[in-house]
Design brief:
The complex is a heterodimer.
Chain A: H1 7-38
Chain B: H1 17-23, H2 27-55, H3 66-101, H4 109-128, H5 154-182, H6 195-226, H7 240-274, H8 281-294, H9 310-322, H10 324-338, H11 347-370, H12 372-378, H13 382-412, H14 418-444, H15 459-488
Helix pairs in contact in B: 2-3, 2-4, 2-15, 3-5, 3-7, 3-13, 4-5, 5-6, 6-7, 6-8, 7-10, 7-11, 7-13, 8-10, 11-13, 11-14, 13-14, 14-15
Classes of the chains: A mainly alpha, B mainly alpha.
């Protein structure tokens, strides 16, 4: 069976994409927040 | 939201013509789009480079005014880095990673489409600034305030374009990581993955870690300009040097984002043409990881001259020098792979070998620049221009070209014209050295970078450099013609293409069918 038809794989794909997206947003917000704080 | 679910159902009927390319979720289509886009950007950025070199052919101002010259310098860098090299590497990733790991497509095919189609809008927005009042951004690709805040109407457009490029890169990276971690065929453990897949996995993490940093920095520039903040404006209590720290916290890992996938390409090509397995596979993986880690702790070597405590200078100097260790491991492993191999010198191998020699020259001049007291002399001189162009042109660009020659028969189903390929290689290799090697001497003699005019004693080396740049530029027309020729026809390529390549991508026919690995292949 193709990996994309496997519900467990699909769930893992969504979860890992979500976590990585959140990481990117956290870095963005974190760096701006750090700069505000350091000023 | 089922970006992952529909991937295997979308193939029954897909539109033809232009709509095929606009709506495609197929990794091969999107890889092709990325590669064609980056080729167009290489030519646009290349014309800008030739404007720069034509102006520098003689001292004095001949062709362009200084402000336009600065716009060319800035756009050349932004177009080449964000429009040329990075999308080309993402194009290779899109085409090859699913084929290499035995996956039917990328894990998030719709997001993949979106990642690509953001780019033409971003670069249209960036390039259209040339025609706005005040012209394009002219403060250099580093966008240092307060200079960049003097940009005219182009400023918000350029900032928005950079945000879009970042979003595209982050989405592309998420896709690559998720694909590699979740969609490898059964039996392909992490330490069985091809090196190209490994280097992209690590690069994608780097991108997610630092692209938002650049986005944050330019967002703060935007608020400084339009919303009354003073993050980087000294007049309001801000600190312009803080921008440099934030920018280079992004900028140095960016250097490795550019080069690590190329290391992966070279690690695929050398074993094929040396007819031996890659020497020290595991040490290659760990060296890649080490380079990625070190890339986060060296950023201030770009700004030794702004002033910093002695302890900081020493830290950044030694951490920078430390990068030579894992890089040396890689150079050693590639050389050891070739040792006693049955080598042949087809065009991909020629570009890979030129990469090995010439990237190492760029690496050595990088070590020279890491030495604080020496760097204070070299800083902002043409020595720096020579250094990073050796890393980026015969380094990254030659590596990309090696990859294109290596995989072109798999993409088009036709062998490229080997004779034309060798002409392209030799003209490029000679042209690139004539262009950039004299710039070392110019820098050591004191010629500053980013100037449209120079003192007469620098004339001879500038003449040589400009002539070399036109040889290199014209040679790229051969590359374009060769690609068009291979797309239109030629000798039919076999599935394996080369004599003894290893990897799943060589088990599918050439050209690779529109859909591959609907059933997961077996890996021992």
């Amino acid at each position: 069976m193709s990996a994309l038809n496997n519900p467990r794989v699909k769930q893992r794909i969504r979860l890992s994409a979500l976590l990585l997206g959140l990481l990117a947003v956290a870095v963005y917000v974190g760096f701006i927040a750090m700069t505000v704080w350091s000023n | 939201m089922s970006m992952a679910t529909d991937a295997s159902h979308h193939h029954a009927a897909h539109p033809g013509g232009l709509m095929r390319w606009v709506t495609t979720t197929n990794h091969k289509d999107i890889g092709t789009l990325y590669l064609l886009f980056s080729l167009a950007m290489f030519f646009i950025g290349g014309v800008m480079a030739l404007v720069i070199r034509a102006e520098l052919f003689q001292p004095g101002l001949q062709l362009v005014n200084p402000d336009f010259y600065n716009q060319m310098v800035t756009l050349h860098a932004l177009v080449m880095i964000f429009g040329g090299v990075m999308p080309a590497a993402v194009g290779l990733a899109n085409w090859m990673i699913p084929l290499m790991i035995g996956a039917p497509d990328m894990a998030l095919p719709r997001m993949n489409n979106w990642s690509f189609w953001i780019l033409p809008f971003a670069f249209s927005m960036l390039l259209v600034t040339l025609f706005l009042p005040g012209g394009a951004p002219a403060a250099g690709w580093t966008l240092y305030p307060p200079l960049v805040l003097q940009t005219g109407d182009a400023f918000p457009l350029a900032i928005f374009a950079i945000h879009l490029m970042g979003m595209s890169s982050i989405m592309g990276s998420i896709n690559i990581i998720v694909t590699i971690l979740n969609m490898r065929t059964p039996g392909m453990t992490l330490l069985k993955m091809p090196m190209f897949v490994w280097t992209w996995l690590i690069t994608a993490y780097l991108l997610i870690a630092v692209m938002p940093v650049l986005a944050g920095a330019v967002t703060m520039l935007l608020t400084d300009q339009f919303f009354g903040t003073s993050f980087f404006q000294a007049a309001g209590g801000g600190d312009p040097v803080l921008f440099q720290h934030i920018f280079w916290f992004f900028g140095h890992p960016e250097v490795y984002i550019i080069i690590l996938p190329i290391f992966g390409v070279i690690s695929e090509i050398i074993p094929t043409f040396a007819r031996k397995p890659l020497f020290g596979y595991e040490s290659m993986v760990f060296a890649t990881g080490s380079i990625a880690f070190l890339s986060f702790i060296v950023w201030a070597h770009h700004m030794f001259t702004v002033g910093m405590p002695l302890a900081a200078q020493l830290f950044f100097m030694f951490s920078t020098m430390l990068i030579a260790v894992p890089t040396g491991v890689k150079i050693f492993n590639w050389t050891a792979t070739m040792w006693r191999g049955a080598m042949t010198f087809e065009t991909p191998m020629l570009f890979a070998l030129a990469f090995l020699f010439l990237f190492t020259i760029g690496g050595f001049s990088g070590l020279m620049l890491a030495i604080v007291p020496a760097d204070i002399q070299y800083h902002d001189s043409y020595f720096v221009v020579a250094h990073f162009h050796y890393v980026l042109v015969p380094g990254a660009v030659f590596g990309l070209m090696a990859g294109v020659y290596y995989w072109l028969p798999k993409w088009t189903g036709h062998m490229y014209d080997e004779r034309l390929g060798k002409w392209h290689f030799w003209l490029s290799a000679i042209g690139v050295n004539i262009t950039f090697f004299p710039q070392h001497f110019l820098g050591l003699a004191g010629m500053p970078r980013r100037i449209p005019d120079y003192a007469v004693q620098f004339t001879d080396f500038n003449v040589v450099s400009s002539l070399g740049s036109f040889v290199f530029g014209i040679a790229q027309l051969l590359f374009l013609w060769l690609i068009i020729k291979a797309i239109r026809g030629g000798v039919q390529a076999t599935a394996a293409v080369w004599e003894s390549p290893t990897g799943l991508e060589w088990t599918v026919p050439s050209p690779a069918p529109y859909h591959t690995f609907d059933e997961a292949p077996e890996v021992q």
